[in-house]
Amino acid sequence: MKENILIIKYSDDFLLSLKESKEEFEDEARYLLTLKLYELGKISSGKAAQLAGISRVNFLLKLRQYKASPFQVDLDEVLEESKR
């Protein structure tokens, strides 16, 4: 399977302002991209974990850190269910 590479340019000043190393920033950026795709329902938690380079369990456990739900449900569905 062909792999593609996403390149995002940033300066060392950016890393200094975040007080993060290059590796810390890139790992978090990769995770946040996969988190958002997962939240939007575009990819599964398994695919998100694979893209983030971590296990599915670790991906799901880390959701709490960003106040994200491990359940892919629509808010309207939740409200409708609560009426019942």
How would a crystallographer describe the biggest sheet?
A: none
* Gap from first CA to last CA: 47 Å
The oligomeric state of the chains shown is single chain
Radius of gyration: 16 Å
Number of strands: 0
Task: Estimate the helix proportion, in percent.
Answer: 55-70%
Brief write-up:
The protein is mostly helical and 84 residues long. It is 58% helix and 0% strand. The protein has one domain.
SSE blueprint:
Elements lengths: L11 H7 L3 H18 L5 H8 L3 H7 L12 H9 L1
Helix pairs in contact: 2-3, 3-4
InterPro entries: UPF0175
Pfam families: UPF0175
Describe this structure in words.
The chain is mainly α and 84 residues long. It has 5 helices and no strands. It has helices at 12-18, 22-39, 45-52, 56-62, 75-83. The chain is elongated, with a radius of gyration of 16 Å.
Keywords for this structure?
84 residues, mainly alpha, 5 helices
